[in-house]
Write a structure and sequence with these properties.
The chain is an alpha+beta fold. It has 8 helices and 29 strands.
Length: 424
């Protein structure tokens, strides 16, 4: 279970800014404590538990960066071609039998160790052969086309820091250093369910007033991208006792309980009241559109200090997507023990006009296109509704408009967040 305190998100204002929520999560939420060793091939999206120090230089020896001829730079004539005797052939994975002597060259292939004495490599296409000799042109600088031992990573330096969420590139680096097993924090366990009498399971019969549940599938897919373990608890009816029992049961064996629907102020919106009754509701209004009603809290566990974090997201799919990306994402990373991964909005040109209320962060669904001058331009999706799922499937990402922004005119520079960044 995650170690949480009841005031971990404590905030007294009526509308919380996103940065405030992120800072409180980082300060007050402790990562899962359990550590496990996993094979490197199974480590994608896992979070490193300890620093990894480079056990060797990368590359571990001087080697050729190209197919060509290894030479001694001191043998090269200045301002004219040089003819050198070819004394061997050196493939990757094999070491030279002797040092390179004066006036000699060796045929070498990419990745092969540099022979002793050799310090420079000519690309094969820049040379020509004359019997058992190679003729090389003038002007190549000392050390050209040679990879030096340790030029990528020096032995003993920090290779990968604790808290790094491992992507393919990090796994490649660990493999290059010879590591087969890495110590990672256990996966964050997340329980997910939807609420609402109007929601039914895809594939089942649907009454005319009902809707198929898209949110659990949306959240499950996003959680998987962050390496979390997901328990799908299905759909809960709008019954306070049923909801309370489900949340309490889920909190006993999960680090995070995640729901959609029922967090507003309607008569059938029971989730927020349930958290107030069985745990601690620490805030439920974020200055964000779409998605203002976001409930966050703590459901206590059986042991002192133990419990599950709780996040209740809006029922509209687009609002659920945006609030997961901006609110649940940093909570999930912190529970996993991952280093913060700030979202960096890319500057693009607005291809639309927009007005918004001051004091809240708004996210506009957009498609990117090239303007006549070649500049990337964001085109707003024509429908704004938080239930319009095609506004996510037919666009490329979100334009983020800061709290103090009131109007956007066509041609203004705005910040763009690609979906690939938002979902991990």
């Amino acid at each position: 279970m995650a170690q949480l305190s009841d005031d971990c998100f404590a905030f007294s204002g009526p509308l919380m800014r996103i940065e405030t929520a992120e800072a409180l999560i980082q300060e007050r939420v402790a990562p899962v404590a359990e550590i496990e060793a996993v094979p490197l091939a199974e480590a994608r999206d896992r979070v490193l538990a300890y620093d990894i120090v480079a056990p060797l230089d990368l590359p571990p020896f001087d080697n050729s960066a190209v197919d060509g001829y290894a030479v001694r730079h001191a043998d090269l004539a200045e301002g004219q071609e040089t003819t050198l005797r070819i004394v061997g052939r050196l493939m990757a994975g094999h070491a030279a039998r002797r040092a390179l002597g004066a006036g000699e060259a060796i045929r070498i292939f990419t990745g092969a160790p540099m022979p002793a004495g050799a310090d420079t490599v000519f690309m094969q296409e820049d040379t020509r052969l004359d019997g058992d000799a190679v003729i090389v042109p003038p002007g190549l600088k000392l050390g050209a086309n040679r990879r030096s031992a340790g030029e990528d990573v020096k032995r003993g330096v920090l290779l990968l820091p604790a808290g790094r969420r491992l992507g393919a590139q990090h796994i490649a680096l660990a493999a290059a250093a010879g590591l087969a097993i890495v110590d990672v924090r256990r996966r964050v366990q997340v329980a997910v369910f939807s609420t609402g009498d109007e929601i039914v399971e895809p594939g089942s019969a649907r009454a005319s007033p009902a809707l198929y549940d898209a949110n659990r599938y949306l959240l499950g897919a996003m959680l998987a991208r962050f390496g979390a373990g997901v328990t799908d608890l299905g759909i809960l009816a709008d019954d306070p006792e049923v909801i309370a029992h489900a949340i309490r049961s889920a909190a006993a064996s999960h680090d995070l309980v995640l729901t959609t629907g029922g967090v507003s102020t309607g008569e059938a919106d029971h989730v927020r009241a349930t958290i107030e009754a069985i745990g601690t509701l620490v805030f439920w209004r974020i200055g964000i559109k779409p998605g203002r009603p976001v409930a966050m809290g703590v459901v206590p566990g059986s042991a002192p200090g133990a419990g599950a974090a709780f996040a209740g997201l809006p029922g509209n799919p687009v609002a659920a997507f945006v609030t997961f990306a901006r609110i649940v994402r940093p909570l999930l990373l912190r529970l996993a023990g991952a280093l913060p991964e700030p979202l960096q909005a890319l500057p693009v040109r607005a291809g639309f006009a927009y007005r918004k209320k001051e004091g809240r962060r708004e996210y506009v669904r957009v498609t990117l296109r090239r303007g006549v001058d070649g500049t990337l331009e964001a085109v707003k999706y024509p429908q704004d509704g938080a239930g319009v799922i095609t506004s996510l499937t037919e666009t490329d990402g979100l334009v983020e408009l800061e709290e103090d922004t009131r109007t956007i005119a066509p041609g203004a520079i705005v910040g763009f967040l690609p979906y690939a960044t938002l979902i991990g």
